[in-house]
């Protein structure tokens, strides 16, 4: 079930990696320490409209977003995996009330270039959902593969040969 993938959004075991990311114009930058708890393709209407694509590729991280200017970690594991590292004057948040289940999510994006940066979902209080396309680390993106897919009832039929294994495809995010 989809909820089991996200019930405890903690970084997977392994070496702590540092990954940077940014919006298209570079006004908003962030740093991630560690690996995502899961990687997901979301086919919900909200993600499609927000991304302007047939789906949205997302990484789930353990985080309490700290929107202040932070220096990079000094070798110690930070409390939060996701930290914004640039001034956030252009960071905007939209309360998206369009999800299928009747709830809402907070979509944060750059007010200058419009890039989606991250999503907070009240269902997953300990997680931040980062738009995978904003990662700066090209090698990580080459290796990226979805571990699950949500809202497959809205999945384009032409996507049948890509994505997660069949047992990790869910019609909703429950």
TrEMBL record:
<dbReference type="InterPro" id="IPR011057">
    <property type="entry name" value="Mss4-like_sf"/>
</dbReference>
<keyword id="KW-0862">Zinc</keyword>
<dbReference type="GO" id="GO:0046872">
    <property type="term" value="F:metal ion binding"/>
</dbReference>
<feature type="domain" description="CENP-V/GFA">
    <location>
        <begin position="19"/>
        <end position="145"/>
    </location>
</feature>
<dbReference type="GO" id="GO:0016846">
    <property type="term" value="F:carbon-sulfur lyase activity"/>
</dbReference>
<keyword id="KW-0479">Metal-binding</keyword>
<dbReference type="InterPro" id="IPR006913">
    <property type="entry name" value="CENP-V/GFA"/>
</dbReference>
<comment type="similarity">
    <text>Belongs to the Gfa family.</text>
</comment>
<dbReference type="Pfam" id="PF04828">
    <property type="entry name" value="GFA"/>
</dbReference>
<protein>
    <recommendedName>
        <fullName>CENP-V/GFA domain-containing protein</fullName>
    </recommendedName>
</protein>
<keyword id="KW-0456">Lyase</keyword>
């Amino acid at each position: 079930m989809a909820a089991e993938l996200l019930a405890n959004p903690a970084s997977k075991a392994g070496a702590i990696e540092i990954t940077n990311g940014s919006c298209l114009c570079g006004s908003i930058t962030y740093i991630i320490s560690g690996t995502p708890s899961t990687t997901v393709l979301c086919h919900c209407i909200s993600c499609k409209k927000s991304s302007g694509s047939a789906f949205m590729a997302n990484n789930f991280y353990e985080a309490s977003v700290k929107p202040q200017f932070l220096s990079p970690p000094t070798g110690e594991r930070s409390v939060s995996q996701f930290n914004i590292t640039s001034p956030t004057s252009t960071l905007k948040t939209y309360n998206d009330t369009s999800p299928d289940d009747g709830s809402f999510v907070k979509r944060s994006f750059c007010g200058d270039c419009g890039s989606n940066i991250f999503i907070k979902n009240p269902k997953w209080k300990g997680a931040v959902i980062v738009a995978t396309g904003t990662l700066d680390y090209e090698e990580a993106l080459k290796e990226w593969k979805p571990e699950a897919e949500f809202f497959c009832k809205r999945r384009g039929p032409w996507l049948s040969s890509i994505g997660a294994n069949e047992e990790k495809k869910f019609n909703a995010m429950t």
